[in-house]
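User:
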Amino acid sequence: MTKTAPTQTAPRQGNALAASALDLTKTYGRGETVVTALDGVSVGIEAGRFTAIMGPSGSGKSTLMHLLAGLDTPTGGRTYLGEHELTSLSDAQLTRLRRQSVGFVFQAFNLLPTLTARQNIRLPLDLAGRTADAGWEQTVIEALGLGGRLDHRPGELSGGQQQRVALARALVTRPEVIFADEPTGALDSTTGAEVLALLRRSVDEWKQTVVMVTHDPSAAAVADRVLLLADGRIAGEIIDPDADAVLAGIRDLGKVA
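Assistant: Predicted structure:
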């Protein structure tokens, strides 16, 4: 079922929030050239759930994700990661919090070509000065089917294998939230479906929180909840979506995905 709301949407009462935003605005430029990417957005991301963010090009979906993840600074409003207000932290504090609490998966994989798969997986731990939990690391590696590829460099791996390494890198720190920006955008449909299944498993089996930006209704249908953005505002949400419901939601915005 699609629920419409002009500027904000909230999780069901009683559910803890892994990330949230209050009256969030983001503008670029000044004067006559100003562009409003987000316009008074308030939203809560439920812990232990899979949330997808969808909307037409330029709707503000990637901007919202980047602000929730602490990768960008809002023009106005506040963002939180758990109980930490990101907008009150210094750059050094924000960097430490991201390393401890956030995992990232991008369309472009963002693996270092000179490092092996294992070294790429452990990179966020190395940057944070932490050692790997051997048992958890092995659980992730086995679940993602990377056991025979750990000594290979990215150039020796397929696109799907590279994205699995990127997902393992995001999971190995046991973050509070994984932010995934078009994680299947560079993959064929079969490999993309496998990556989505792994994200879904991380929520169902490992109680992870996942926030994913996507333009693909089939990918969004894997989520527990879809947030619909239009013109920098929350335009509605879909709970327990399927691909048809997502397509209908997009059409309700006056656009066709």
